[in-house]
Inverse folding.
């Protein structure tokens, strides 16, 4: 499996949040989830997307440390390296 | 002293279209929403009415409920009413709840394991999620719950909502029912128990009737303390004046053949409304098109009304839209109120060959003007459910 670039991960996370119901113009790499209309159930779903897409395990503890789109990108890069 | 319960808003999504008016006008014109043996709300596109986020996070039965409630609440002007929101309740009946969610998530579980199951599965499948979604959407902070009594659930919701207002537990209550159970599993299960029509034709009270046709949809009413409604200048469409509910305590799916439980519910509703059978202008029958229901219901009407029974026009909404299960009682309540307001009994469609002893006036094939002698029209709507549940509501059109 080829490693996803940071831009690809960022794009994937943003598209997931838009799929969850966010307006595309509201979602930026530094957007904080708590400032968006993203709740705890959405975050579980986001974790499922990440696991499925990048074949890495995401625990509740991992998600507790993730607050922005950029955090997800950094997390995926770290796990894939 | 109990309060009089005004109806200030109605809404419906049915196989005849989106909106309460489509239900009345098209049914009264003798049109059917049944296609290929099913009563689907094929004209209902959730994203036309709800945000992408709402659609993604709700089962179809909740989507139908939100749209029917939106119509009723908008007509009543309830979002703008000068009430403490803690004084507004919401009760939504359903037979099953989020069945399509349960089925699709179960497939994911079997094929891909637990981690594939959506975190939104539980809030979508819960039978009370329509009531909860309504409360959230319209900031209704009073009592809120679902009623679950199969095909009587919508009528139970209207009845308990009316009680809430009568007893001052709420100034207003948004009440109704919603169902979206036309799924592979439910279609197979109802067919295997012999409840649904193999010919796919809904013809209540006809000699050839062979089961009900499954339908989906939602019906909602805004029930409101009539004095408070008048004070705020709301238009009053009619009144929910009586409610009666009983159990057959006989069999899980077969009605008690003498119709005793149903007759007791009808009598209770009339007594509650302080109405004699002679004042009834119209009966909206449960009329499922199953051999057993239509016979037992006819017996029940004869028991409850005596010799007056054949004189009261009695028709079945299910002949036009199929059986909406937990939504049926609410949708038919909405249909009944509109029939009373228009002084028109819409017809029982497909009733061409009368059955022996089924000899009431079922308003076959064509709508009929109701005779009311200058009084506001009064009528009842019957609902009976698997489990032996009987629920009847009595309504009166505004003068």
């Amino acid at each position: 499996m080829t490693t996803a670039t940071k831009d690809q991960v960022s794009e994937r996370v943003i598209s997931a949040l838009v799929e969850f119901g966010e307006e595309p113009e509201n979602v930026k790499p530094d957007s904080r989830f708590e400032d968006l209309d993203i709740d705890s159930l959405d975050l579980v779903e986001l974790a499922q997307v990440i696991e499925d897409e990048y074949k890495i395990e995401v625990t509740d503890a991992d998600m507790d440390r993730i607050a922005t789109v950029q955090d997800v990108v950094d997390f995926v890069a770290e796990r894939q390296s | 002293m109990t309060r009089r319960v005004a109806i200030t808003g109605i809404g419906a999504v049915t196989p005849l279209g989106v909106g309460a008016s489509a239900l009345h006008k098209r049914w009264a014109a003798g049109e059917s929403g049944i296609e290929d043996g099913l009563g689907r709300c094929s004209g209902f596109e959730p994203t036309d009415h709800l945000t992408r986020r709402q659609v993604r996070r709700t089962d179809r039965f909740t989507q139908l409920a939100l749209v029917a409630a939106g119509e009723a609440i908008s007509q009543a002007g309830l979002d703008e009413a000068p009430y403490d929101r803690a004084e507004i309740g919401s009760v939504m009946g359903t037979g099953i709840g989020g069945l399509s969610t349960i089925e699709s998530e179960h497939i994911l579980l079997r094929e891909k394991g637990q981690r594939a199951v959506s975190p939104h599965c539980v809030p979508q499948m819960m039978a009370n999620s329509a009531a909860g979604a309504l409360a959230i959407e319209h900031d209704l902070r009073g009592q809120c719950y679902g009623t679950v009594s199969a095909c009587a659930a919508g009528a139970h919701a209207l009845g308990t909502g009316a009680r809430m207002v009568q007893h001052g537990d709420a100034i207003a209550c948004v009440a109704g029912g919603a169902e979206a159970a036309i799924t592979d599993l439910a279609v197979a299960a109802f067919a295997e128990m012999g409840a649904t029509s193999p010919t796919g034709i809904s013809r209540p009270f006809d000699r050839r009737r062979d089961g009900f046709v499954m339908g989906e949809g939602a019906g909602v009413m805004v029930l409101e303390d009539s004095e408070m409604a008048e004070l705020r200048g709301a238009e009053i469409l009619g009144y929910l004046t009586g409610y009666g509910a009983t159990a057959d305590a006989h069999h899980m799916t077969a009605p008690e053949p003498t119709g005793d439980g149903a007759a007791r519910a009808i009598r209770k509703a009339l007594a509650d409304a302080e109405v004699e059978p002679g004042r009834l202008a119209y009966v909206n029958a449960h009329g499922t098109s199953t051999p057993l229901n239509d016979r037992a219901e006819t017996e029940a009407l004869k028991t409850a009304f005596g010799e007056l029974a054949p004189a009261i026009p009695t028709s079945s909404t299910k002949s036009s839209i199929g059986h909406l299960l937990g939504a049926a009682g609410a949708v038919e309540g909405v249909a009944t109120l509109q029939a009373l307001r228009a002084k028109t009994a819409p017809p029982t469609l497909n009733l061409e060959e009368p059955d022996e002893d089924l000899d009431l006036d079922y308003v076959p094939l064509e709508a009929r003007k109701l005779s009311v002698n200058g009084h506001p029209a009064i009528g009842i709507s019957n609902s009976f459910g698997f489990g032996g549940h009987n629920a009847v509501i009595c309504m009166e059109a505004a003068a």
